[in-house]
Design goal:
This protein is an alpha/beta fold. The protein is built from 12 helices and 19 strands. About 30% of the residues lie in helices and about 20% in strands.
């Protein structure tokens, strides 16, 4: 086998591409990974992880400020955001180093450059000014090139005043004020973080609520929490950018565009709306030897969904399996303050006789001890079968609790048993919300009329 020939080539080293390359190598394939930027892709370098680092930094700041509630006398020195940003960059570099070590351990060739199809089996690797450096070929190709921030017509990201989420995460100094356009998960997380570190934030959403696709009770709780944190929240606002001159920074987070500038037409790969690549349940494109996973496929723009698809694509491409991606239960998490999350069965809407239970963290002994009493757990249950169908959580640790809720729903559990849940814990709030649907929760006061 020539040095430029592989069993599989993966384009992009984000969660989907990284997972696909490693799984292919685990299956015995000679694999190469082409990356034009940094190993780890958007998630590690410009998205999930740096966002969570900054969120965690803010959480620690708040804990120190409230340490007196536990009998400590701690004074927080003035926050230097540049120091936090430097620690964030160091942490991300450390994780990236670990990923590179994993790739090396499996003898995966990491190729620096941009990939462009020559035909269905051949890729050109492009360097500076899109000049071709060399070619590589493979029996199978997995596209995991991700997506980039979308811009609003009439505006251009200049990394100065008009910025995207990547620019925001690269800021070393805290601006005096910022307009955030887009009330989805990214907009809410950015508003939470930057307001927490002293930036005056206006968050504008064109729909009539934040997180338009989320449960309205959750959306409203997040809105109230942002207001308490000093964020100005505007909904049903389609003209926020008319006031752009008032702000030091304008952050636009209104969606993502597929990174499909790969010469797909030369390989005959079909795209659908907005340039996303069409795939079937096995992650295959219309070209039999080419697969696509993660954001570029446009199904679930989530890192963990991309990881799942990456593993499936590698199994099908190299292991010659026919494994379908299971998207029946996909949790959603937003790092507001406190966090919010939700998960529901994919066929949730077909259930007609649904009852709801709710348990506030203010009634949780563990939440009381940790002084994390804000928020609630809400549960949807099929009244006839008593099967849990969905959970919505706003509160501390909800990003972890939703994993438990997801497994409960995915396992098709007929009911939840208290005997298997530790006390005192946050997770028992899932059980309490479930029992409340039947007016059986012993942790809550008797409801009127019962």
């Amino acid at each position: 086998m020539g040095l430029n020939e592989y069993d599989v080539i993966v384009i992009g080293s984000g969660p989907g591409g990284f997972t696909a390359a490693v799984r292919a190598a685990q299956l015995g394939a000679k694999a190469a990974l082409i990356e034009k930027s940094l190993i780890g892709g958007t998630c590690l370098n410009f998205g999930c992880l740096p966002t969570k680092f900054l969120w965690q930094s803010l959480k620690i700041k708040q804990k120190i400020q409230k340490s007196y509630e536990y009998g400590f006398k701690a004074n927080l020195e003035p926050v230097v955001f540049a120091d936090i940003a430097a620690r964030k960059d160091k942490a991300i570099a450390g994780i990236r180093k670990g990923m590179i070590a994993v790739l090396s351990s499996y003898d995966i060739d990491v190729i620096e450059g941009a990939a462009s199809f020559k035909d269905r089996n051949t890729l050109a690797v492009l360097g500076a000014e899109k000049k071709e450096i060399f070619k590589v070929s493979a029996d199978k190709i997995i596209i995991a090139s991700g997506a980039i921030p979308s811009v609003i017509k009439g505006f251009v990201f200049d990394s100065g005043k008009i910025i995207n989420s990547t620019d925001a995460l690269n800021l070393k100094e805290m601006p005096a004020n910022m307009l955030i356009v887009g009330g989805g998960a990214i907009g809410i997380e950015m508003a939470t973080i930057f307001s927490g570190f002293g930036c005056c934030i206006t968050l504008a959403e064109c729909e009539n609520c934040l997180l338009p696709n989320e449960d309205r009770e959750v959306s409203e709780e997040i809105r109230r929490n942002l207001l308490r944190q000093g964020v100005e929240v505007l909904v049903s606002c389609s003209n926020a950018l008319d006031q752009a001159d008032k702000y030091e920074k304008v952050l636009i987070v209104t969606g993502r565009t597929p990174n499909s500038d790969l010469g797909l037409e030369k390989a005959g790969v079909k795209t659908i709306k907005r340039g996303f690549i069409e795939t079937d349940e096995f992650c295959r494109t219309n070209v039999s030897n080419i697969y696509a996973v993660g954001d570029i496929a446009g199904k679930n723009l989530l890192a963990y969904a991309a990881q799942n698809e990456g593993a499936v694509a590698a199994e099908n491409a190299i292991g010659k399996s026919s494994i379908a991606v299971d998207n029946s239960v996909i949790p959603q998490v937003v790092f507001s303050m406190p966090q919010s999350s939700s998960v529901k069965a994919s066929d949730f809407l077909r259930y007609k006789d649904v009852i709801f239970g709710k348990f506030p963290f203010a009634a949780s002994g563990r939440a009381f001890i940790e002084n994390e009493r804000a928020g609630f757990v809400k549960c949807a249950v099929d009244k006839t079968t008593k099967k849990p169908l969905a959970f919505w959580i706003v509160g501390s640790h909800s990003d972890e609790l939703i994993n438990i809720a997801s497994q409960v729903i995915k396992s098709s559990a007929e009911q939840i048993s208290r005997g298997s849940i530790f006390h005192p814990s946050f997770s028992e709030s899932l059980f309490n919300a479930y029992e409340d649907a039947f007016d059986k929760c012993v942790e809550l006061t008797k409801k009127s009329g019962n």
